[in-house]
UniProtKB/TrEMBL annotation:
Protein name stated in the entry: Potassium transporter TrkG
The keyword tRNA processing is annotated on this UniProt entry: no
UniProt keyword list: Cell membrane, Ion transport, Membrane, Transmembrane, Transmembrane helix, Transport
GO cellular component term, pick one: plasma membrane
Amino acid sequence: MATSRRSARAEAWRRRLRELGHFFRDFTTSSPARFAIVVFTSLILIFTALLSLPAASASGTRAPLADALFTAVSTICVTGLTTVDIATFWSPLGKVIIFVGVNIGGMGVLTLASILGLIISKRLGLRAKLIAAGDSNPLRAHGGPVNEGQTVRLGEVGQLLRTVALSTLVIEGALALLLYPSLLMAGIGALEALWEAPFYAAMAFTNTGFTPNPGGLAPFADDYFLLTVLMIGVFLGSIGFPVIYTLSRHLWHVGKWSLHTKLTLITTMLLFVAGALAFLGLEYDNPGTFGSLDAWDTTFQAFFLSAMTRSGGFSVVDVGELYGSSLVVGSMLMFVGGGSASTAGGIKVTTLAILALAVWSEAKGRASVEAFGRRIPSDVQRVALSVVAWGATIVALSTITISQMTKAPIQEVLFDVISAFGTVGLSTGLTAELPDPAAYVMALTIFMGRIGTVTLAAAVAATSRSQLYSLPVERPIVG
C-alpha cells in the first residue's frame, strides 16, 4: 500500500513537471519577444552566478548579490553603468566573464539564438527566419505580424546573421590592432596591452564603456588617436547590423541603400554634430571640464562627449562637473540612443526621424509621411509614438522612485536613469553610491531599456487580433 502511494505521488509530480514544461514551452515559443526576454533573463542569472564566484572578485571573496546582479545586467545589456570599480573590484577571471558577456549581449539575443539555431541545424527554417527578422531584418518595422513588405528579405536572413557574427569579429579585431600601439606608448606592458586592446575594442563596438585599467580613460586624455579609434568603434556599433549589412553590399551605391539605412546615418550625423556644438557652447568656460583646455582640445572633447552620450559610455571629463544645461543636452542625446538592431540603446534614431517627418508632413498639410521617395505607413508611425511614450514613462517612474529612495538632486538622478534606459553608461557618480533597493530599480531600468519598449509590449500582448468592424468617427479637440 505504501509503495503504491509513493508511486502515485511520483506520478503526480511527473505530471506536474510535464505540465510546467509544456506551459514554459508554449509561453516562450508563442512570441519571439517573450523568447527574447526569457533568454535575456536566463543569461543575466547565469552571469550573476559566475560573477558571484569568489574567484571572480579581486579580493577572493564572494561579491555582494546587488553588485554581482547589477554588473551582470549592465554586462548583458551592454550598458556600462556599475556600482563598483571594474578595474579594481573584479579579478582577471571576472573581467574575462564581463568581456564574454558584453559580446553576447552586443549581438542581441534574438540574433544570437538564430545563429545558434543555424549552427545546430545547418540551415534556417521559416520559424527561425521570422525570429531572426524580428531583430535583424532591415525591413522589419515593429513587433507585430509580419506583412508582405517585411518578408521580402527573409531569404537573406541567413546571410545577414553571418554578417552579424563576422562584422563583430572583424571590427573588434581591427579596433584591437589599432589600439595596441597606443596602449604600449602609454606605458602599459606588452602582455597587459595584449589583453586590454581587445577589451577596449569590445567595449567600444558594443557601446558598453567599461575600462579595464584604474582611472578609466584619464591616462589617455591627450591621445587623440586612441580616442578617435574608440569613437569609430562606438559609431560602428551604434548604427546597427542592418546598416552595416547594407553598407557592406552597397557602400558606394547610395541609391540602393534602404530607407532605414538613410534615416539612421543622416540622423546619427546630425545628432553627433548638434550635440558637439551644444557641448562646445555650454562648457567652453567650465573650469571643471573644458575651461582649462585650448580651442583644439575643447572642440575635440566636445565631439568625443557627443559621441559617447549617444550610447558609448566612455568619458574623459568628469560628467559630474558638467553644467546642468549640459546634463539636459546629454540626457536628450542618451534618450534617443543609436540605430535599431544595434548595440546601442534608447528609443533609436529612426524613431526620432519618423516622428520628425510626421510633424513636418502635418505642418505641410500632406496626407502621408514620405522620405526619399518612399511612403512610411501609419502603423510604423504609431509604433514610433508608442516607443517614445513607453520610454518616457519608464524614465519618469524610475526617476521618481530612485529620487525618493536616495533624496539625491533630481538632475543627477534623471541623468543616470536616462543613461540606464539608453544603455549608455555615463554617470554623475550617483550610481556607485546607490543603496541596494535603488540599485535593483536601476538594474530593472537597464533591462527594460535594452530589450526595447516594443519588445516588452509585444511580449505582454503576444497576439494580434483582427477587428472586422469599425466604430463611428468622432474627432476630439487636440492642442
